[in-house]
Design a protein that fits this description.
By secondary structure, the chain is α/β, with parallel strands linked by helices. It has eight helices and eleven strands. The protein is globular.
């Protein structure tokens, strides 16, 4: 998947991304709290290398961490910076590819790559490049936190759609509807995703459709790739254990 296509997907989604959540601010706080609990330290230097509009990055900044957010999508990064400023927290931002991070070695205590961002990389070579960069910018024994969809289950069932999510704004605004269609490739591992948002428009529905591609990386395969990139002590946590909404892989940078 050309990086420009991934950037386009999130550029097009940036203005409406918060509508995926029933309550984006509540999700921001909940995810930031869960990640903070896993980090086990205060005032950490954190890189969110797939920050999007800032869901995890702002959540962590609200917990007092020193957060830098990067993403391929310039529009998403710009919104993350605006949303952080609106909440009176500091969030340094830059447009960057996680395979080529613009930071010196050993810069961060923790690197976060959440919300199924890593599987936008469609080959082992690209995933290895990103993980190697995360390892490079971490201090010795620094922590990486990676979350993906529950791909072991999804690879078994290969669903073709997600249930519609109806968002009722807390401010009493009009509801919106979000759902996805998945088209699995012949290899059984990659899938095209069509993301639908239905937005009210004068008594009718206006439909926005964005398209991208993912690689369904199962736990064992991702664990092996993380180990090959120089991380040690990989451990998976499920949402019931971590409080985070997706399965999450934690590992330490080898010394």
């Amino acid at each position: 998947m050309p990086e420009t296509s991934v950037a386009r997907f999130y550029d097009e989604l940036a203005d409406d991304y918060h509508l995926i959540f029933a309550d984006w601010d509540a999700s921001m706080h909940r995810q930031g709290n869960a990640l903070h609990g896993l980090m086990g330290q205060d005032n950490a230097s954190v890189l969110d290398c797939s920050c999007g509009i800032g869901t995890q990055a702002i959540g962590l900044a609200l917990r007092g961490h020193r957060v830098t957010g990067t993403d391929l999508s310039a529009r998403a990064v710009a919104r993350a910076a605006q949303e952080a400023a609106h909440r009176n927290v500091t969030l340094r931002t830059a447009v960057a590819d996680m395979r080529r991070l613009p930071f010196p070695d050993s810069r961060f205590d923790t690197v976060v790559c959440a919300d199924n961002a890593l599987p936008h990389l469609l080959t082992e070579q690209d995933v290895h490049a990103a993980l190697t960069e995360m390892r490079r910018v971490l201090r010795p024994s620094g922590l990486v936190l990676l979350s993906t969809r529950p791909y072991d289950d999804l690879l078994r069932d290969r669903p073709t759609s997600t249930p519609p999510q109806v968002h009722h704004p807390a401010d009493g605004g009009e509801r919106t509807i979000t759902f996805q269609l998945w088209h699995w490739h012949e290899d059984g591992e990659h899938y095209d995703l069509e993301h639908f948002q239905l937005l009210p428009a004068g008594g009718e529905w206006r439909v926005k459709v964005r398209r991208t591609v993912y690689w369904a990386l199962g736990r064992d395969r991702l664990t092996a790739l993380v180990t090959d990139a120089g991380f040690v002590d990989p451990e998976w946590g499920i949402p019931q254990e971590t409080g985070f909404f997706q399965p999450l892989l934690m590992a330490r940078a080898g010394t």
